[in-house]
Design goal:
Layout: E1 10-15, E2 18-24, E3 39-43, E4 45-47, H1 59-67, H2 71-76, H3 81-89, H4 93-109, E5 112-118, H5 125-141, E6 145-153, H6 164-181, E7 187-192, H7 199-211, E8 215-220, H8 228-234, E9 239-242, H9 248-257, E10 261-264, H10 266-272, H11 279-284, E11 290-291, H12 305-316, H13 320-327, H14 329-333, E12 352-357, H15 363-366, E13 373-378, E14 381-382
Parallel strand pairs: 4-5, 5-6, 6-7, 7-8, 8-9, 9-10, 10-11
Antiparallel strand pairs: 1-2, 3-12, 12-13, 13-14
The chain binds N-(iminomethyl)-L-glutamic acid and fe (iii) ion.
């Protein structure tokens, strides 16, 4: 993970959506040539864990948080995820699409080329489907490669307060079949943590999802050592995410599994005042690691992967190279797209960041607020001056927003 290969004074040839070739020496023939002007040409960020489809925001809870209320306390008071679910319920699908597209274009401008988006603010069958349909529209409208994850078990829907088992029944018997029937999800997720879903409930959901061919990506060990890593691995999870709290046991289980990517979310640790995950321990034990933004209204209202990279270095003691690999190729693995993206490789998607001239590679996370992007390409197209084109017209405002 500590190695980022590079060529000096290189060129890179894009054909259509793909990287056709790269090298040094005389330039190959091309229709258009862009001088990178001494900047770096990098693979785009692959953000494997986001919740960017949400309505409104939770700036009120931000005030409570500053006063000292924890994430759990806010959730217990009926705020948190349920607050976002209420807002989403009152928001039309078109308005939700518009708000979410704004965030997607925002992250594309910041160098993200590939993105995973979860449902989980619906918590009723119809509202979960509404979220997933919005993600489907985004997949169709945006050049970025997008993967969708069904997270019906993000919290127990308000109508089921005190009846969590029945809510899990609803997820398994009604939501999952509908989601699968409409082909709306690539993956399934469960918030397996203290105060949310238990390992047994998680197992039930993953067992059902497996029948529909949905591989898990699990929220685990954010608030406590939850058993979520173990249950995720048992059901062949592609990734287990959060991991603010882990022991040797989680490292051992993940090493044995061999195919489950640990994903840490330093933006959530930063914003929610949670411990930072044991990234060093994971990597030093021989495990790979991905970092993602967790862009969501409650625990991480930012999708800036360059900041995630900086937090990986500053707060998790990763080298700039380790942090970059965690934010690109390993993120691509955590959403099943590593064969087609996540690195500068012949034949892969031409998802590229051209940086301004920088003194060094380490400057990217070091001087992490200094603008560093000169141009971004997604699937071979230069997005730098045209990203506005993807913003739907502001015509969908509904009451309350
Ligand atoms: O990944 N931890 C659970 N879900 C989100 C937060 C959701 C929210 O607070 O809206 C997360 O941190
Ligand atoms: Fe999350």
């Amino acid at each position: 993970m500590d190695k980022v290969e590079s060529v000096k004074n290189g060129w890179l040839l894009i054909e259509g959506e793909r990287i056709a070739d790269f090298g040094t020496g005389p330039l190959p023939a091309a229709d258009r040539t862009i001088d990178a002007d001494g900047g770096f040409v990098l693979p785009s960020f692959c953000d494997s864990h986001t919740h960017i489809v949400y309505a409104g925001c939770r700036d009120g809870e931000f005030r409570d948080k500053i006063k000292g209320l924890s994430y759990e306390e806010i959730a217990t008071r009926g705020g948190g995820i349920l607050n976002s679910a209420d807002l989403l319920h009152d928001t039309s699908e078109d308005d939700l699409y518009r708000q979410s597209m704004e965030r997607a274009v925002e992250v594309m401008r910041m160098g993200t080329g590939c993105l995973e988006i979860k449902s989980g603010y619906g918590l009723t069958t119809e509202d979960e489907l509404k979220m997933l349909r919005v993600i489907r529209r985004m997949k169709e409208a945006l050049p970025m490669e997008i993967r969708s994850t069904f997270l019906g078990a993000h919290a127990t829907g308000r109508a089921y307060t005190g009846r969590q088992t029945e809510y899990v029944d609803l997820v398994c018997r009604e939501m999952l079949p509908r989601v699968a029937d409409e082909g709306l999800a690539d993956f399934v997720d469960v918030f397996c943590d203290k105060g949310f879903f238990t390992p047994d409930e998680t197992a039930r959901i993953l067992e059902t999802a497996a029948r529909y061919g949905l591989r898990p990506k699990i929220h685990a060990n954010e608030l406590a050592v939850s058993g979520g890593v173990q249950v995720g691995v048992r059901y062949n999870a592609l990734s287990t995410d959060h991991l603010e709290q882990t022991t040797e046991a989680e490292i051992e289980v993940l090493k044995k599994a061999g195919k489950t990517m640990p994903v840490m979310l330093p933006g959530a640790s930063f914003f929610s005042n949670l411990p930072f995950g044991n990234a060093r321990g994971f990597i030093d034990s021989g495990l790979p690691l991905a970092l993602a933004s967790d862009y969501n209204p409650g625990s991480s209202p930012s999708g800036n992967m360059r900041f995630v990279m900086a937090l990986g270095c500053i707060r998790m003691r990763l080298s700039p190279e380790e942090a970059f690999n965690a934010c690109t190729i390993n993120g691509a693995y955590a959403m099943g797209t590593e064969a087609a993206g996540g690195s500068i490789t012949r034949g892969k998607r031409a998802d590229i960041i051209i940086t301004k001239p920088l003194p060094s590679f380490a400057f990217i996370p070091y001087s992490h607020q200094t603008p560093f992007i000169s141009r971004v390409f997604v699937k071979g197209s230069d997005m730098t001056d045209i990203s506005d084109r993807f913003l739907p017209k502001c015509q969908y405002f509904t009451a309350g927003h």
